[in-house]
Amino acid sequence: xxxxxxxxxxxxxxxxxxxxxxxxxxxxxxxxxxxxxxxxxxxxxxxxxxxxxxxxxxxxxxxxxxxxxxxxxxxxxxxxxxxxxxxxxxxxxxxxxxxxxxxxxxxxxxxxxxxxxxxxx
Length: 121
Fold this sequence. Notes:
Blueprint: E1 11-15, E2 18-26, E3 29-36, H1 43-46, E4 58-64, E5 66-71, E6 74-79, E7 83-86, E8 90-94, E9 98-105, H2 106-116
Antiparallel strand pairs: 1-2, 2-3, 3-9, 4-7, 4-9, 5-6, 5-8
């Protein structure tokens, strides 16, 4: 069994009010704690990945705020209280200060995190 809290989870990406914390919690599953300030748009950070979008699937829950998810099939909006599944091929854009927690396959998530951090893939 495994558990963690936001405070126990290491910060992977921090840029002003934007914060991404990630921790593997068992098998090939990682938990991510996200804080995106209003206006945060990951379009530029995800450029260079397949389709210039995050290709990692995520299952999660929006704790606070409002977020637009851009996909090849169109945009969808999420608000606090929404549980979600985001399949491969998406770009998050914060429409308000947003916080969410998600669960993702560790290997696929690590590729995205390393890309955003500018680490060689």
